[in-house]
Amino acid sequence: MHPMLNIAVRAARAAGNLIARNIGQQGQFSVEEKKKDDLVTDIDRECERTVISVLQRSYRDHAFLGEESGLTGNAESEFQWVIDPIDGTTNFVQGIGHCAVSIALKRAGKTEVAVVFDPMMNEMFTAARGEGASLNGRRIRVASRTSLEGALICTAFPVRYRERMGAYLELFSNLIDHCADIRRTGCASLDLCYVACGRFDGYLEQGLKAWDFAAGELIVREAGGLVTDYTGTPGYVKSGNILCGNPNVVRALLNVCNPQELPAILR
Ligand code: 2AM
Ligand code: CA
Question: Are 79 and 63 in contact (CB under 8 A)?
């Protein structure tokens, strides 16, 4: 295994243990609202400290971008670790065991290694650039479906961008007419990994942050998937509007999004 991936896996496991020990223990941890409907617990913060301290033991002069602590470490470094200590915090707070630790390493802006760990399922998704993607050490690939017929698609509602809701629900209604069914799980990093291993045929969500998708994006690509925004370009890196699947499914999803007619608010 790539040595940096090895360290990232160790960090993800350490944080994952904290999640597993605390989930379902409502009242034992504090819950705060960062913004309306955007939660953070002291377990999020403890997980982030744990991840950074494990990484820093091996890489003391790297930079760290964590959801909860922002940019720390050596801001000059070309190596930056992008960390979501608990992706799916709302699930965690509600005692729903679908959440993950997400860690990606970027070098000069390019993602080199990625880990998404689901501590409740004990599933470790990993990827290294050019070396493929794995689940618990076994190679994974995106599903082979050639169209949306029979497809299980994952999405989310733009609850943090309420002004997009009307346009999104129109798109949603169009989508449900073309695929078999739709899921909404509340954990973007695992949504991406589930596409990577073929559990979902495709996935689209609006307005994600870098830590939500940095690791999952590499895992999808290394599993043979395509990642674009809703107009078929790499604009998602900035907008966080992400759409992915195998190349056929991405083409079909883009057809549903109809980029020429897509409302500006969803671009
Ligand atoms: P979180 O649990 O780390 O906050 C659910 O659709 C997904 O959206 C989760 O992965 C969740 O990550 C993410 N999310 C939560 N708050 C967000 C925000 N303010 N902007 C973008 N994504 C967010
Ligand atoms: Ca989080």
Answer: yes
Q: Which atom of ligand 1 is nearest to the CA of 159?
A: 6
Going by their DSSP bridges, the two strands 70-73 and 79-87 should be labelled as unpaired
Probe ligand 1: pick from 209, 213, 236, max atoms within 8 Å of CB?
209
0.85 surpassed by pTM: yes
Assigned token pair, 169: 């629900």
Tokens representing 72 are 């720390």
Which residue do the tokens 């377990």 mark? Answer: 43
Q: State the pLDDT confidence band at 109, using cuts at 50, 70 and 90.
A: very high
Task: Return the pLDDT at 203.
Answer: 98
Indicate which residue's Cα is closest to atom 9 of ligand 1: 187
Q: Tens digits of per-residue pLDDT, 49-106?
A: 999 999 999 999 999 999 999 999 999 999 999 999 999 999 999 999 999 999 999 9
Distance of CA 255 from the midpoint of ligand 2 (Å): 31
The residue type at 37: D
SS3 state of residue 210? helix
Which tens digit of pLDDT belongs to each residue from 187-224? Answer: 999 999 999 999 999 999 999 999 999 999 999 999 99
Q: Coil, strand, or helix at residue 193?
A: helix
Rounded to the nearest angstrom, the distance between the alpha carbon of 236 and the centre of ligand 1 is: 15
CA of 154 to the centre of ligand 1 (A): 15
| Contact in structure between 228 and 180 (CB atoms under 8 Å) | no
SS3 of 101-131: EEEEEEECCEEEEEEEEECCCCEEEEEECCC
For residue 86, the ligand 1 atom closest to its alpha carbon is: 3
CA 96 / ligand 1 centre spacing (Å): 15
